[in-house]
Amino acid sequence: MRHIVKPLLRHRMMPLLVVLQVALACAIACNALFLLQQKLVPLLTPDGVGQPQQLVVAWNLAPRGQPWPVSTLRQTAAELRAIPGVTVVSLAGSWPMETMAQMTGTVLADGRDGKADAVIYIGDHLRSTLDLKLVAGRDFSAAEDVVVYKNIGIDDDGPTIITRALANRLFPDGHALGKVIRIGDQADAGRRTVVGVVAHLMRNKFSQDNRDDIDYSMLFPGTPSNWPVPMFGVRVRSAAEVASVLKAVKATVQRELGSNMIQGIDPAYETYGDMRQRMLAQPRAAVWLLSGVSLIVLLVALVGIMGMTSYWVQQRTRQIGIRRALGAKRSDILHHIQWENLMVMSAGILLGMVLAYAVNLWLMRHYELTRLPWQYLPLGAVLMLALGQLAVLSPALRAAKVPPVVATRSV
Amino acid sequence: MFDYYLRLALRRCRQNLPMVGLLVLTMAIGIAATMTAMTIFGALAGEPLPGISSHLYVATMDAREAVDKDNPDYKQPDSLLKFSDAKALVDAHHAMQQVAVAASLTQFARPDGKRSEKAYGLMAYGPVLQVLGVPLRHGRSWTEAEQASAAPVVVIDTEVAQKLFGTENAVGRSVTLGRRDFRVIGVSAPWNPRVRMFDVRQNQGTVMGQKEMFLVPAQAALDAGVGPLLAGECGKDAPVASFQSAAVAQCRWIETWVRLDTPATVATYDRFLAGYANTQHDAGRFVYPPQAKLVGTQAWLALNHVVPDDVHLNLLLAGGFLLLCLVNVAGLLAARFLRRQGDVAIRRALGASRRTVFVQHLVETGLLGLIGGVLALPLTWLGLWIVRMQPVSYADAAKFSPGVFGVLFALSLIVGLLVGILPAWRVCRLPPALQIKLG
Lengths: 411, 439
Known about the structure:
Number of helices of chain A: 12
Distance between the termini of chain A: 27 Å
Strand order of the largest sheet of chain A: 3-4-9-6-8-7
Shape of chain A: elongated
Low-confidence stretches of chain A: none
Transmembrane segments (chain A): 285-313, 342-363, 375-393
Family (chain A): Belongs to the ABC-4 integral membrane protein family.
Distance between the termini of chain B: 25 Å
InterPro entries (chain A): ABC3_permease_C, MacB_PCD, Macrolide_Exporter_MacB
Order of helices and strands of chain B: HHEHEEHEHEHEEEHEHEHHHHHH
Structural class of chain A: alpha+beta
Largest interface: A-B, 61 and 51 residues
Low-confidence stretches of chain B: none
Helix content of chain B: 40-55%
Largest sheet of chain A: 6 strands, mixed, barrel
Helix content of chain A: 40-55%
Keywords (chain A): Cell membrane, Membrane, Transmembrane, Transmembrane helix
Oligomer: heterodimer
GO molecular function (chain A): transmembrane transporter activity
Largest sheet of chain B: 6 strands, mixed, barrel
Radius of gyration of chain A: 31 Å
Number of helices of chain B: 14
Structural class of chain B: alpha+beta
Shape of chain B: elongated
Order of helices and strands of chain A: HHEHEEEHEHEHEEEEHEHHHHH
Number of domains of chain A: 2
């Protein structure tokens, strides 16, 4: 080992520059990959909605003056239901992938210490319109769906359907059915009895969510009153009928509500699949950006290490020749250069890990970021070591080819 | 001497084109990434109203009048006030200037019904043009008397004037807003804050400043049935208003901005504000402790995360990347220079001082930096174009401005010199004899 370390210490500049470069690349790559992973969460999580292209959504319906009375909205829903090709219609207060109306809050398992930040979707026929997969319990009954709340409905008691992820979080023993969830920690908070569990349903607020709580959603049946931003979900029987239903939905909503919509803000009519596409465009763009950055960072580091190592090798051509003349095998020289690279890289990586962690801590203090999971550090280390070995391969092979006769030349 | 070094540098660059290409490209990518991030940051991070907003403060307090305990969205006292409170604050005249404003979106029509135009603008109580520095092209602002009598007068911008009347100078014409005809008393130049500054609580996710196409006295607008675009917080038991409602007497929908020039007046106003809010609390109107506070424009924008974290993070990322590129290029340059120790040795032996050798190498790296800068120009343009194509709220900020050239030039020169210092110092350090021997 000493014959590798000693020359490194004697000619410090080149190894130091490599160390510095590796440390920087490591710190940037670790943090960029971590950000990347966070942006990937909504892209990789199933949203739970079945047949997204066969679900037409009418949203951004903004009433002028007072909110529409429930009777008007129900009348519109009935008209929508009468459109040929429509199987089920939901009149809802908020919708997956729609961020204008969000109902979020802390919910608690009654009588236990389970607690989670969940999103609430309120509306009638929600489960069937969204085509959510029921994994336990039942759907809301017709009687439960016709309830009209005095207000939004968050403070009212009643039944609820929750996602499996939320059920596991609040009731880790696996028996969520029949249990009560309190919406908020006040004494008079709404109490909801779990009647069903669905496989997945993504929340509509995913700015800073992580893999766990992105699937914490609850469904309440019924219709909110005085709700300024209602929306309609319309389930279409077959893909062939989507275009005609979309047109009919637009015409119906315009006819029923158009005269009382605000000027200047256009309602949106589109399939849920398109909505999802648009909402996820931003994280998707960020993923491209961050992967591009990570790739370029690694590429720059690769080129840099390669360039510096090849100079470092070239400078020692004579010494290598002497070693060869004294009996070192080609593989000895190859391994020497590789070991050397490994040590320099390790020093750089060690420094880089500390730097990555420090940067993350600083970012956490100034921005809404979470802690860098420790798993990223060994992952980054292995990545950088592999990169180093890749970079050193060609200079090392060239060094190994140095013939012993070089030793006899111009000293 | 300088141009000799320059010619020398050019000659040397030609000797190893692939290597020079790599060095220049690395610098160019680093510079372009930083320039892209800096352009966006520069467009968003500065003052919303240059020279004006640094003196503007918004009044915040918990002005809720009914118990609203479990509203998870209400995390801190906000800026929305009832019109009556905003009026009281403005009428108190405790600051140099004060105005209450709320965003509105409404239809403007010619009384003859021939043309109409949708326009965003501000409903205001107080001398809004003076406080915000809206430039007036024709006519005048409204007077205290007109405001007090809720006279139907309005200031529109040149674009609305042009569209409705086919001329910029529309002073004296009539426009219909809601149920009434308003007289145009002034025409302003097109005006918008650089980033969103009014009503940020209700417009989360909006970054770019709204172009305000009209300014109207709030009471006159309400009388005509024109309300704020968003009715704000109406409280739990109040009748719910939604959008564009003029029935907002029960709602908190307007914010009060004051202009204060010295820290002492800020402190005094802060005390006045706290006094006002506490009086309301003591009288039983505000049910929660008001925690009234005056917040400066920049602090208010930061508090409400108007400029997304991504903008800052991207700048940090780009800066870190540039640093990596610098170290990288410095290393490659050191290798390049040290390979030519022979040339340097001969120059030294012929009498060149260390200083001249150092300068010669810096000239070379400076040149490389500038070439990198030239290459970075199209790359920056490309980067900004890519950002503009992204579905991000700040896409409009990614515009190539002439100022970019200057910064780019300076940055590439600095980069070129910075990466050269270590290698140039290294190459001139060895004694000439040893260098000749090595060569």
